[in-house]
Amino acid sequence: MPLPSSIVILTGAGISVESGIPSFRDKSGLWSMVNWQDYATPDAFARDPGRVRDFYNKRRRAMAGVQPNAAHHALARLEAGFRGDLLLVTQNIDDLHEAAGSRRLVHMHGELGSALCEACGMRSRWPGDMTVDSRCPQCESAGRLRPDVVWFGEMPYQMDRIYRALGEADLFVAIGTSGHVYPAADFVEEARLNGAHTLELNLEPSETAASFAEAIHGRATEIVPAFVDRLLETS
Ligand code: BV8
User: Fold this and answer.
1) How far apart are CA 174 and CA 200, in angstroms?
2) Which of 15, 24, 149, when mutated, tests ligand 1's pocket best, judged by the most ligand atoms within 8 Å of its CB?
3) In terms of pTM, does the model score above 0.90?
4) What is the pLDDT of residues 167-189, one digit of tens each?
5) How far is 116 from 120, CA to CA, in rounded Å?
């Protein structure tokens, strides 16, 4: 692999599995336990906001004591040691990349620890439970807060910034994602068409495996540090 000057990395739930966070589509994944149509769509929230807030309250509480793993730390080490441009785009709503030290980071599907006010549009840090009585810190409206998470049918965040980075990247790496959800699953094609080398680091071939020039299969805590070591040695 030639030495890259500009890297885009896309992560999915698979990078957090070894920290104890369930993925979505693995056999014990979240969407095999609940029906995403009842929790991760604007209609679900309109139908039963309390049930949806509780669903995210439980996932927020489950983050207590959860630590980033060797794969998160390796990506933070890459950001610190890599002299070119690097953008880390995550589909995950956990804060494990930040906890490991990553800063050039986009949460394209939002964040578990953030609240969005439907009355004034303000986003605010929200570490605790969210209920119908929770008030927006900005406009003080009650009953108007929702999880600051991108649901199905909603536009993911910072897409312009992401596509600009994909246009300039000469290396695109997808880590721990099934390639099931769009538009994230299209990023590899976007990067490839712009001339980037494309690499998939995943437990098994994803649904978009055929689009990648190279693949390394294994557990993220093993293959991601090895990939970062190799890249930093050559840079
Ligand atoms: C939108 C909420 C448009 C947060 C989620 C074509 C183009 C555009 C859209 C679509 C399209 N086709 C269909 C659509 C609609 C839809 C979609 O993609 N549907 C799917 C079901 C086909 N997309 C959307 O609705 C998106 N919005 O397109 O808007 C628009 C246009 C104009 C105006 C307005 C709107 C929004 C998508 C975001 C939805 N939100 N979740 C939450 O509750 O968490 S999706 C959910 O899936 C999560 O966000 C998650 O991040 C995402 C992807 O899942 P993965 O991260 O990949 O996780 P998964 O479990 O699937 O896979 C884990 C992988 O890790 C596996 O491969 C496994 O093998 C591997 N693994 C496991 N353990 C390890 C490991 N790897 C390494 N080591 C290990 N130890």
Assistant:
1) 5
2) 24
3) yes
4) 999 999 999 999 999 999 999 99
5) 9
